[in-house]
C-alpha cells in the first residue's frame, strides 16, 4: 500500500484535503498510483466534508492534473457542493469556478449556481479573483451573458488595482472569448506590456496571442510586436507521436505532400501541414467528449490559423485513443473529428481535407460575437 494511503487512514477528512493541497503546492504528481489514491480518498469523503473542504479538494485535484483518465476526478465533490454554492464567499467561489473549469466538468445545474453566485458577489471580487473568473469562463468556453456584462462593467473600477499578471490574464481571457473590440482591452494590455520584462515564457506567449488577435480582428489597434518574439514550445508526447506517424504513413501512401513542424508568424509550430492548406492541431488538454477546445491557448491558436487561411482540424489526443476503438458515422460523414487516417482519405478525392469543423463551435463563436458587439 502506498505511503499516502497508510497516512490517509490515520488522519481526518479535512487533513486529507490539506495533504492534497500540500502535494499540489509542491508539484508532487508522481507516481500516478499515489495521485489515483489521492483522488479516490477525496471523493470517498465528499459527503462528510464541509463546503470549504469540498472547495479545497476540488482546487487540489485541478492543480494535481492533468489527469490521464476520463471522466476526470472531482465529480462527487462537485455534486456535494450543488446545494451550498450560493453560500460560498467570493474567494472560494472564484477558485471553485476556475478549478471545475480546469477539470472540465459538465454539470449544468452546478454551473448555473456558480454563475448566479458570481453575479451576486461580482462587486466584492478582488482583482485576482476577477482574473480567475475570466479565465474560468474562457477555459470552459461558457457564455453567461449577464455575468460577463457585470464583470466587464467592473473593469474600469478595478483597473488601477490590477497587478500586471492579473491584467494579462483578463486580457488573454477576453480575446479568447472574442472581446477583442472591448474598450477596456487596450488599457489592460498596456498595463501588462509595461511589466513584460518580468514575465515568464508562458506569459510572454499569452501577450503574443493577444497582439495577434488584435492584428487580425481590430484593424490598426494592435501594438507593435516586441523583442524578443518567442516561438511556441513543442511538447509532443507518445500519443502525439503515434498520431503523426500514422498520418505521415497514410499521406505517403496517398502521395499527398506534407510538412512537419512548419512555423507561422514566427510563433506557432504546425504539428502537421498538408498541401500547404490544412493543418492538424493536436490538443493534449481537452477531454475526448468536448465539442470545442477547453484551453484558451488552443482556442486562440486555432482561430489565428483560420484567420491566416489555413483549414484547421482540431484533435484532442484523448479522442484519438477513444476512436481507435470506436468511430461512428452519420449520413456518410463523421460525427465529430475523425481519426487522422480517415480525415486524410478525402485529400485525394477533394484536393484538400474535408472541413469537419464542428457546428457547435460555430454556435459558440456566434454567441461570443453577439456579446462582444454589445460590450464594445
In words, what does this structure look like?
It comes from Cladocopium goreaui. This is RAP domain-containing protein. The protein is an alpha+beta fold. The protein has three domains: 3-181; 182-230; 238-370, Endonuclease, Chain A, CATH 3.40.960. Helix content is 56%, strand content 8%. The chain has helices spanning 3-8, 13-25, 32-44, 51-64, 75-81, 90-103, 108-120, 127-140, 145-158, 164-176, 185-193, 201-217, 238-254, 296-307, 317-323, 340-343, 346-350, 359-375; strands at 258-264, 268-274, 278-283, 311-316, 329-330, 333-334. The strands form two sheets. The chain has a four-stranded mixed beta sheet with strand order 1-2-3-4, with helices on both faces. The longest helix has 17 residues, at 201-217. The chain is globular, with a radius of gyration of 22 Å. It starts with a helix and ends with a helix.
Amino acid at each position: 500500500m502506498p505511503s499516502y494511503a497508510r497516512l490517509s487512514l490515520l488522519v481526518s477528512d479535512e487533513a486529507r484535503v490539506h495533504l492534497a493541497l500540500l502535494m499540489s503546492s509542491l508539484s508532487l504528481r508522481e507516481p500516478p498510483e499515489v495521485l489515483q489514491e489521492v483522488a479516490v480518498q477525496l471523493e470517498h469523503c465528499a459527503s462528510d466534508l464541509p463546503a470549504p473542504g469540498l472547495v479545497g479538494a476540488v482546487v487540489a485535484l485541478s492543480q494535481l492534473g492533468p489527469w490521464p483518465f476520463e471522466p476526470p476526478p472531482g465529480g462527487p465533490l462537485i455534486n456535494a457542493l450543488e446545494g451550498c454554492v450560493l453560500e460560498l464567499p467570493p474567494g472560494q467561489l472564484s477558485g471553485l469556478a476556475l478549478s471545475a473549469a480546469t477539470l472540465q466538468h459538465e454539470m449544468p445545474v452546478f454551473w448555473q449556481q456558480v454563475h448566479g453566485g458570481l453575479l451576486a458577489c461580482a462587486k466584492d471580487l478582488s482583482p485576482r479573483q476577477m482574473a480567475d473568473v475570466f479565465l474560468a469562463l474562457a477555459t470552459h468556453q461558457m457564455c453567461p451573458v449577464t455575468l460577463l456584462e457585470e464583470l466587464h462593467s467592473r473593469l474600469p473600477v478595478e483597473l488601477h488595482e490590477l497587478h500586471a499578471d492579473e491584467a494579462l490574464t483578463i486580457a488573454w481571457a477576453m480575446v479568447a472569448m472574442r472581446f477583442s473590440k472591448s474598450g477596456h482591452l487596450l488599457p489592460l494590455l498596456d498595463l501588462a506590456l509595461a511589466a513584460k520584462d518580468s514575465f515568464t515564457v508562458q506569459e510572454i506567449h499569452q501577450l503574443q496571442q493577444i497582439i495577434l488577435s488584435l492584428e487580425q480582428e481590430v484593424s490598426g489597434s494592435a501594438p507593435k510586436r516586441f523583442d524578443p518574439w518567442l516561438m511556441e514550445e513543442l511538447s509532443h508526447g507518445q500519443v502525439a507521436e503515434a498520431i503523426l506517424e500514422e498520418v505521415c504513413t497514410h499521406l505517403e501512401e496517398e502521395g499527398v505532400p506534407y510538412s512537419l513542424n512548419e512555423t507561422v508568424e514566427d510563433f506557432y509550430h504546425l504539428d502537421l501541414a498538408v498541401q500547404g492548406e490544412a493543418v492538424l492541431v493536436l490538443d493534449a488538454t481537452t477531454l475526448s467528449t468536448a465539442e470545442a477546445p477547453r484551453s484558451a491557448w488552443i482556442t486562440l491558436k486555432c482561430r489565428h490559423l483560420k484567420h491566416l487561411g489555413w483549414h484547421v482540424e482540431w484533435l484532442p489526443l484523448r479522442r484519438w485513443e477513444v476512436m481507435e476503438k470506436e468511430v461512428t458515422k452519420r449520413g456518410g460523414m463523421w460525427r465529430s473529428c475523425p481519426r487522422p487516417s480517415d480525415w486524410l482519405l478525402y485529400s485525394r478525392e477533394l484536393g484538400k481535407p474535408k472541413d469537419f469543423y464542428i457546428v457547435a463551435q460555430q454556435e459558440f463563436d456566434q454567441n461570443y460575437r453577439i456579446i462582444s458587439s454589445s460590450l464594445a
